[in-house]
Write a structure and sequence with these properties.
By secondary structure, the protein is an alpha/beta fold. Helix content is 41%, strand content 20%. It has one domain: Rossmann fold, CATH 3.40.50. A five-stranded parallel β-sheet has the order 2-1-3-6-7, with helices on both faces. A two-stranded antiparallel sheet has the order 4-5. The chain is built from six helices and seven strands; from the N terminus they run βαβααβαβββαβα. The chain starts with a strand and ends with a helix. The chain binds flavin mononucleotide (FMN). The site of flavin mononucleotide has 18 residues, from helix 1.
């Protein structure tokens, strides 16, 4: 393993439970692979802008037709995509906010899903171009949702990553964090044990 891309998305930054799990996992990975290159994006302190018509238009415009602002938008998206392409391992801290993924993560996804760069259209439908990668998702929630229709995140994140060609995805859940102090402790311990197993 050479490159680890970590994306934390908790609005609480490094104090978020998903961030703490992702941080701990990466720390263990880097101990195992001290030569690995680690890029960390914290979408709370360094948010990706919402995709708007100007930015999306920039992605579609021929390079010579792009305005300076559009060139900057494409360069920014290119940087995010280059990080993803270079990554062997992707580690994602994933809170649930208002029954979905953080809007910052959606904005990130909107900047890395680019035809011809991370996926391409074929006669048989879209094909992801980011193959051969492994992703770990550390998911924190106040309630209990896994295996129920209320879990709006797991299928969505899996589907999005698969769309880009990232098929090998492990989820670790810390759920029921808002139910009671005991539920929180039990769940965090369970997530920590799962994390240890994955990092072993
Ligand atoms: C704005 C906000 C919205 C939330 N919405 C939900 C929710 O819809 N379902 C849920 O189970 N927990 C919800 N929670 C609880 C979080 O999922 C929980 O605090 C979790 O630890 C968030 O991950 P983080 O600590 O990494 O930020 C919400 C928390 C906040 C701050």
């Amino acid at each position: 393993m050479k490159n680890v891309l970590q994306i934390n998305t908790s609005l609480f930054g490094e104090n978020g439970e998903s961030s703490k799990l992702a941080d701990r996992f990466v720390e263990k990975l880097l101990k195992q692979y001290p030569e690995a290159r680690h890029i960390k994006r914290d979408l709370a302190s360094d948010p990706v802008p919402h995709l708007d018509a100007e930015r999306f238009g920039a992605f579609l415009a021929p390079p010579e037709r792009r305005s300076p602002a559009q060139q900057a938008a494409v360069k920014y998206s290119d940087t995010l995509i280059a990080e993803l392409k270079a990554a062997d391992v992707i580690v994602l801290g994933l809170p649930m906010y208002n029954f979905g993924v953080p809007s910052t993560l959606k904005a990130y996804f909107d900047h890395v899903a680019r035809a011809g760069h991370t996926f391409r259209y074929t006669a048989n439908g879209p094909v992801g171009l980011l193959t051969g990668k492994k992703a770990y998702v550390f998911s924190a929630r106040g309630g209990l949702y896994t295996g129920t229709p209320w879990d709006t995140e797991t299928d969505y994140v899996r589907m999005f990553l698969r769309f880009l060609g990232i098929e090998d995805v492990e989820f670790v859940y810390a759920e029921g964090l808002a139910i009671s102090p005991q539920s929180k402790e039990t769940s965090l311990n369970k997530a920590a044990a799962a994390l240890e197993r994955l990092a072993a």
